[in-house]
Specification:
Elements: H1 28-33, E1 37-46, E2 49-59, E3 64-68, H2 75-82, E4 90-95, E5 99-100, H3 106-112, E6 114-117, H4 129-141, H5 144-148, H6 153-165, H7 181-194, E7 199-203, H8 211-224, E8 229-233, H9 237-243, E9 246-251, E10 254-259, H10 261-265, H11 268-275
Parallel strand pairs: 3-8, 3-9, 6-7, 7-8
Antiparallel strand pairs: 1-2, 1-4, 4-5, 9-10
Helix pairs in contact: 4-7, 6-7
Bound molecules: adenosine-5'-diphosphate and magnesium ion (MG).
Length: about 280
C-alpha cells in the first residue's frame, strides 16, 4: 500500500462531527469506496486565475453537506466540475468508485445519478406541475416510445408520492409558470427526485423565498438526508444553521475550514474571511 503521490491535506472535523477524517495515507481506491463523491486536488484556471485551487471535498452517502463562502470563492465552479460542465486543469473527481467525472460527459454524469438545481429555477412554465414531473420520469427512460405511453399505476403512485414530499400535491394541476418562486424551487427538486438523483447539488435553494417557504425547504432537505446525498450552497446563514451537519467553507478556491457549525463559527480565519461580525 503506497501512499498517494499528492495526498490531500487532512481535513479536521469538529469534535462532535460523525464525519471521518480524510486520511492522507489511505489508498485512493479505498477512499473512493467510502464516499459517493470525491474531489481531490481540483484546480481550475481561468486565464491565469485559479477559480479552484487544489480543492478537496469528500461526501459520504446520505450526507447533507452545506457549502458556504464569499462570492467568487468557487462554489459554482465546483458544481460545474462535478457535473462535467468544466474540465479542471488538475485533480481527480469520482462518483462512487466507478465513474470518473473528469472523463464522463454531462449527460452520462446526470444519468449516473448526479442532479443539479441551478439558482434560477428551470421548470417548464407552460406545463402543469404534474406534467413537469411526468416528463422528468419519462425523459429518464430515454426511449421514445415511453414518451407517448401512458403512465402505469405504479408510476402514478410514484409521482403522487414525490408531489407530497415537495408539498405540491394540491397544486398538481396548476401551470408551473403560476407557482411562487419557492414552489418552483420545490418542483425543481421534485424533478431531480423523480429522476432518482442520488446526489443533489442545490445552488442557493432558499434565495428569494418567504420565511414560511424557507421553513418548508428546511423540512424537505432534512427529510432527504440519509436517502440522498446533498450539497447545498447557500448564503442565508440562519437557513444553513437550521440544516447544518458538516459545513465546508470555501475561500479563494480551496477549503478554508470544515466541521460542524460550532467549529466553523469559532474558526478565526472563517470569521475573518466570511462571517465577519455575524454571530452564529
Ligand atoms: N467562465 C469564467 N471565466 C473566467 N472567470 C470565471 C469564470 N467562471 C467563474 N470565474 C471566476 O472564478 C471565481 C469563482 O467563481 P464562482 O465559482 O462563480 O464563485 P461562487 O459561486 O463561489 O461565487 C470568480 O472569481 C469568478 O469571477
Ligand atoms: Mg455561485
Amino acid at each position: 500500500m503506497t501512499p498517494p503521490n499528492n495526498p490531500p491535506a487532512a481535513q479536521g472535523m469538529g469534535a462532535n462531527s460523525q464525519t471521518p477524517l480524510v486520511l492522507p495515507w489511505e489508498p485512493k481506491a479505498l477512499r473512493r469506496r467510502r464516499h459517493i463523491l470525491l474531489l481531490e486536488g481540483i484546480t481550475v484556471v481561468f486565464e491565469g486565475f485559479k477559480a479552484l485551487n487544489n480543492l478537496n471535498l469528500a461526501l459520504r452517502e446520505g450526507e447533507l453537506r452545506c457549502v458556504i463562502g464569499p462570492n467568487g470563492a468557487g462554489k459554482t465552479t465546483m458544481m460545474d466540475v462535478i457535473t462535467g460542465l468544466i474540465r479542471p486543469d488538475r485533480g481527480e473527481a469520482w462518483y462512487r468508485d466507478s465513474l470518473n467525472l473528469l472523463e464522463a460527459d454531462e449527460v452520462a454524469i446526470n444519468l449516473a445519478g448526479i442532479g443539479r438545481k441551478f439558482q434560477k429555477p428551470s421548470v417548464f412554465e407552460s406545463l402543469t406541475v404534474w406534467q413537469n414531473l411526468e416528463l422528468a420520469l419519462k425523459a429518464k427512460k430515454t426511449v421514445f416510445s415511453t414518451l407517448v405511453a401512458r403512465l402505469s399505476g405504479a408510476e402514478k403512485a410514484y409521482l403522487e408520492e414525490n408531489l407530497q414530499l415537495i408539498n405540491l400535491a394540491e397544486s398538481k394541476d396548476r401551470l408551473a409558470g403560476s407557482l411562487s418562486h419557492g414552489q418552483k424551487q420545490w418542483l425543481e427538486i421534485g424533478i431531480l427526485l423523480v429522476q432518482k438523483a442520488q446526489v443533489l447539488l442545490l445552488d442557493e435553494p432558499v434565495a428569494g423565498l418567504t420565511t414560511q417557504e424557507i421553513e418548508r425547504t428546511t423540512e424537505l432537505l432534512l427529510s432527504l438526508e440519509g436517502k440522498h446525498s446533498l450539497i447545498v450552497v447557500e448564503h442565508d446563514m440562519s437557513f444553513v444553521r437550521s440544516i447544518a451537519r458538516t459545513v465546508t467553507v470555501l475561500h479563494q478556491g480551496a477549503v478554508l475550514a470544515e466541521g460542524d457549525m460550532a467549529t466553523i463559527s469559532s474558526h478565526p480565519a472563517v470569521v475573518e474571511a466570511y462571517l465577519g461580525a455575524e454571530t452564529c
